[in-house]
Amino acid sequence: MAGKIVTLEITDLAFDGKSVAHLDGKVVFLKGGLPGEKVEAEITVTKPRYNTGIVTKLLTKSEHRIKAKCSHFGICGGCTWQDLKYEIQLMYKQKQVYDCLARIGNLSETEIDEIIPSEEIFNYRNKMEYSFHTSGDNSFTLGLHQRGHFDKIFDLKKCHLQAEPSSKIVNWMRDYVAKEEIPVYDVLEHTGYMRFLMIRTAAGTEELMINMVTNYGDFPDPEKFIEQILPDFPEITTIVHNQNGKKSNIATGEIEKILHGPGFITEKLLGRSFRISSNSFFQTNPKQTETLYRTAFEMLGPDSNDRVLDLYCGTGSIGILLADRVKEVVGVEIVPDAIVAARKNAEINGIENIQFYEANVKDYLNAGSQEIENFNILIIDPPRAGINPRALKKMLKLKPEKILYISCNPATFSRDAANIVESGYTLPRVKPVDMFPHTMHIELVSVFYREK
Ligand SMILES: C[S@@+](CC[C@H](N)C(=O)[O-])C[C@H]1O[C@@H](n2cnc3c(N)ncnc32)[C@H](O)[C@@H]1O
Asked: Which of 28, 117, 290, 366 is the most exposed place for a label (fewest CB within 10 A)?
């Protein structure tokens, strides 16, 4: 069957951005194509329960198909839906939330509010991680991953997700590394030096950080580098160098050196200031983050007597924004840099009724301190994998009155939500918020109420 060319009608979009069709009673996940389109496709993999394939020819076009703005669209692993009208992207995201809640969570009675669109659909990101790649010869690329390939990077000329000068810095950097003959990291052989270029911006203050992530060793001639890059990009307010000599291909470092400026940028959210360092999590669509947090607080309805436990707190933004409306907040986060930033953020915003602990949520809950018995509100904002089941059990033992759960993955949210509801909570509604136009990512806000 693999290699066979077939004619298919696309009926849906799947969670990972692929399109969905059916062939001989089996589902086919396709790269390319939009619902309503008739396509010619090559079957690439056959499995007992499904096939995968790739669209080779469009036989009819969907009325919702538009011309993608980006010249890298189709190759780039970043945007999967740039060729689909934005309002239709939103419709499919809404449907995916519905499908996950019904299918995984068995929660078809929970109301799903209409998804909140992103105010900006281009240039909305404040952080991009560009990868260096070489196959061992003298040539290299600097850009983003090719769709579906962890080990293939294409040379990026312009990305429309982060405003300029982001792409211009990428192109400058590629020339600099080539001119200076700085070796590039080979991800398969684990040799070479340059690994990532991260660019972070702060819309509220117009500050800009570049962070070079390399294999072990000092950055060659940093003074010369700074002298050359700053006149070309006066927008850069800080430059940091992180060394990551581990095999895991992530853009965070074990050793950080500040080469220029303060080593952080400051963003403003809902009137407060937040320090963002190179290695800590910060929401990537700042305008929409304000909408997300505002929505979350409206749904939660905080009270001045509330004691709030903010789990997976990152740089502390949710707790800090909530602190003056409640009695006290405790934030827990695993990344040491994020906790340093969270404490600093509380200080620069003059917040005194908040404390932060650097810990794995599971360990913090296991430690069984008396303090944790007193929280009546739980805020949970975990990574995409959702909540560790043992940690969730511990959270539920605290019997909080309300749980505000913010999720970036409707599938793991639905799994966790089913467990929360089973242990005596109601989930009247969830509110999807679109933080990432043109990608399949969906953010959700929800509040669980303990049944009396
Ligand atoms: C989706 S982010 C949320 C951050 C924050 N609430 C915000 O809105 O900016 C998830 C955070 O959980 C942290 N994290 C992941 N696993 C963790 C764990 N087991 N224990 C504590 N924190 C964890 C990550 O470092 C990250 O900062």
From this structure: 366
Q: In which residue ranges of the chain is CATH 3.40.50.150 found? A: 93-119+281-450
Spacing, Cα 229 to ligand 1 middle (Å): 33
φ and ψ at 62, to 5 degrees? -70, 145
Give, rounded to a whole angstrom, the gap between the first and last alpha carbons of the chain. 57
HSE toward the beta carbon, residue 182, CA cutoff 13 A:
24
**CA 338 to centroid of ligand 1, rounded, Å:** 9
For domain 5-58, give the CATH number.
Answer: 2.40.50.140
- Among protein residues, the one with the nearest Cα to ligand 1's atom 19 is 360
The model carries a pTM of 0.91
The DSSP H or E segment spanning 213 is strand 207-214
Distance, CA of 328 to CA of 221 (rounded, Å): 48
Q: What is the largest CA-CA distance in the chain?
A: 69
State how far the Cα of 426 lies from the Cα of 375, in Å rounded to an integer: 19
Residue among 334, 345, 362, 405 to mutate when testing ligand 1 (max atoms within 8 A of CB): 334
Domain formed by 127-269, architecture? Beta Barrel (2.40)
d(CA 240, CA 207): 14
Distance between CA 386 and CA 290 in Å, rounded? 22
Pocket-forming residues, ligand 1, beta carbon under 6 Å: 281-283, 312-314, 317-318, 332-335, 338, 360-361, 381-383, 408
The pLDDT tens digits of the residues spanning 52-72 come to 999 999 999 999 999 999 999
Q: What distance in angstroms lies between residue 224's CA and the mean position of ligand 1's atoms?
A: 37
User: Among residues 357, 445, 366, 358, which one has the least CA distance to residue 398?
Assistant: 366
- The DSSP symbol for 124 reads -
- For residue range 276-300, what is the model confidence (pLDDT) as tens digits? 989 888 999 999 999 999 999 999 9
- Cα–ligand 1 centroid distance for 335 (angstroms): 8
